[in-house]
Automatic annotation (TrEMBL), chain B:
Name used for this protein in its record: Sugar ABC transporter permease
Family: Belongs to the binding-protein-dependent transport system permease family.
Transmembrane regions: 12-35, 72-93, 105-125, 154-178, 199-221, 262-284
GO biological process, one term: transmembrane transport
Length: 280, 291
């Protein structure tokens, strides 16, 4: 390569990089605009909801009003209980099943694995009508357990953990067995610790999925005692408020706030755990 | 550990998950299929076998065809747009960039919000007259527009919301895949003097094909699974112009309490999804180079 073409290459790459930066930032600002707008509306008095004056007075009154207008504290407790319940039981059940699929030979294995994968397509959302009947028969309508149950045995979780467990060297398992560990002991001491990034990635996906889930909880709950924040928010913004946008936006940010802040703080770990878990 | 003992251990490990999976996925799927051949039980009248009558009713229902058309259009536009945007975002964020962390955060933030919250924010945006979009349009003198009240624009308005919400999520998968491409490939290409575009077309994009398959299968399923925003923004209206299949099923099952009709529509949805997923797998799989 001659000196001339080198210089051209450097030039175009600098030019490229500037274009790249402009494009990335333009798209970023466009993407962020709706959120900025929501934050503006929520933190200013109603009179400034759609008027943009740089020195408009800031206020937290919208949040206070929203908080007092509906039992959000209760909704939050319900959501936290739901998310904890679903994620922990998914971890336990999917770990056991994934271990069986990864390291055991038994009749019917392929068929059963296919049946598990089927859930990636036939998701609980599509079976709402029948699952509602089941919950009624079980007497579980309007309980947090009813929201959680259809999601606990997760095909995605089983698949993901099985892929991870299969990469664990068999020698480690044999070493543990020689030391006298049983089946569950090996699973707990060898496999689970090595799958930490997978648990983190899957846990994050699962937490956000169930924090945000709406349709099934809407159907299966009908009281303040069980409603998660998503359903609470929809009841609040459709019935109670008329169209006071400042308060609705404040409530909207409030319900998504904890998750948003957590993810923004941990986004680096989030991406990395996805990479290590080999989800790509 | 050999033979029988291993079998029993395997089955025991599987049983908790499988019991729940059968109870809430396979059993209801089979019952739904079964119920689609019976009438809806009402009051004292129990369900009676009606053969294919429910399917006939479904296929002659104009609203069903409208909703099916809506959903296919919705999928056909939101999937390619959000996947393409996701790839562009990932490429942006993977390159050397000032304020990379901030830009990545802006792309990613909408995906963390509940769709129901996103719908609230956008409902405010689309408000005729004083919503954000009409205000911007007002700058160059355009009049009020009722985006959600007009059958011609309402589905498009919902698509924008879906793309905004989904693209950042798919970006994460592309980003994870991009970071596994060894830098030595880029250096080699630079020495060869190939342009960034050639490098992308000949190296990056083919290497990302498994991710594209994974992401697009997910996108297909999501475009039939996520209907939360309809509840807040339009309730399917006006004139069913913004209703999607799952919302139609919800209405049949829980608004009109016609469970037989809902079951039949569910089967239609499942068949459609299977065909799409299988078709997509075979179509794309041939072009995928697994490492």
């Amino acid at each position: 390569m001659s000196v001339d073409t080198m210089e051209i290459a450097v030039d175009t790459s600098r030019y490229d990089r500037i274009l790249n930066t402009i494009g990335a930032w333009a798209l970023g600002l466009l993407w962020f605009l709706p959120l900025i707008y929501a934050v503006w509306t929520a933190f200013h008095p109603g009179a400034y909801a759609t008027r943009f004056e740089p020195f408009a007075p800031l206020t937290l009154q919208n949040f206070v009003n929203a908080w007092n207008a509906a039992p959000f504290a209760h909704y939050f407790v319900n959501t936290v209980m739901l998310v904890t319940m679903v994620t922990l039981s998914q971890f336990v059940l999917c770990t056991l099943a994934a271990y069986a699929f990864a390291r055991f030979e038994f009749p019917g294995k392929t068929l059963l694995f296919t049946l598990v994968l089927l859930q990636l397509l036939v998701m609980p959302e599509m079976l709402i009508v029948e699952n509602y009947q089941t919950m009624r028969v079980l007497g579980l309508i309007d309980t947090i357990a009813a929201i959680a149950l259809p999601y606990v045995a997760s095909g995605f979780g089983i698949f993901l953990l099985r892929q991870t467990f299969m990469t664990v060297p068999k020698e480690l398992e044999e070493a543990a067995r020689i030391e006298g560990a049983g089946t569950l002991g090996i699973l707990w001491k060898v496999y689970v610790p090595l799958a930490k990034p997978t648990y983190l990635a899957y846990g994050l996906v699962s937490v956000s999925y169930h924090w945000n889930n709406f349709l099934w909880p809407l159907i299966v709950t009908n009281s303040v005692e069980t409603r998660p924040v998503t359903v609470g928010l929809s009841v609040f913004s459709s019935v109670d408020q008329g169209i006071d946008w400042s308060i609705i936006t404040a409530a909207t940010l409030m319900t998504s706030g904890p998750l948003l802040i957590a993810f923004l703080l941990f986004q680096r770990q989030f991406v990395q755990s996805f990479m290590r878990a080999g989800i790509k | 550990m050999m033979g029988r003992r291993e079998w029993i251990h395997g089955w025991l490990l599987l049983s908790p998950a499988l019991i729940l999976l059968f109870a809430f996925t396979h059993y209801p799927a089979v019952v739904t299929f079964w119920a689609s051949f019976f009438s809806t039980p009402r009051g004292k009248r129990s369900a009676k076998f009606v053969g294919l009558e429910n399917y006939q009713t479904l296929l002659t229902d104009d609203k069903f065809w409208q909703v099916l058309y809506n959903n296919l259009l919705y999928a056909g536009i939101t999937i390619p747009v959000s996947v393409a945007l996701a790839l562009i975002m990932a490429l942006f964020v993977n390159s050397k960039l000032h304020g990379r962390g901030f830009v990545r955060m802006t792309y990613f933030a909408p995906t963390v919000l509940p769709l129901i919250a996103v719908a609230n924010i956008w409902l405010f945006f689309y408000t005729p007259g004083f919503g954000f979009i009409d205000q911007v349009r007002g700058l160059w003198g355009a009049g009020e527009a009722n985006w959600l009240g007009n059958p011609d624009t309402v589905l498009g308005a919902l698509m924008v919301v879906a793309v905004w919400k989904e693209a950042g999520f798919f970006m994460i998968f592309y980003l994870a895949a991009l970071q596994t491409i060894p830098p030595s490939l880029r250096e080699a290409a630079a020495i060869e003097g190939s342009s960034r575009w050639t490098f992308f077309r000949r190296v990056t994009f083919p290497l990302l094909m498994p991710t594209t398959l994974f992401v697009s299968v997910n996108a297909v399923i999501n475009s039939f699974r996520l209907v939360d925003h309809i509840f807040v923004m339009t309730e399917g209206g006006p004139d069913n112009a913004s209703s999607l299949l799952l919302y139609y099923i919800y209405e049949a099952g829980f608004k009109f309490w016609d469970t037989a009709h809902a079951a039949t529509a569910t089967i239609a949805l499942l068949v459609l999804l299977s065909v799409l997923a299988i078709g997509q797998f075979f179509l794309v799989d041939r072009k995928v180079h697994y490492r």
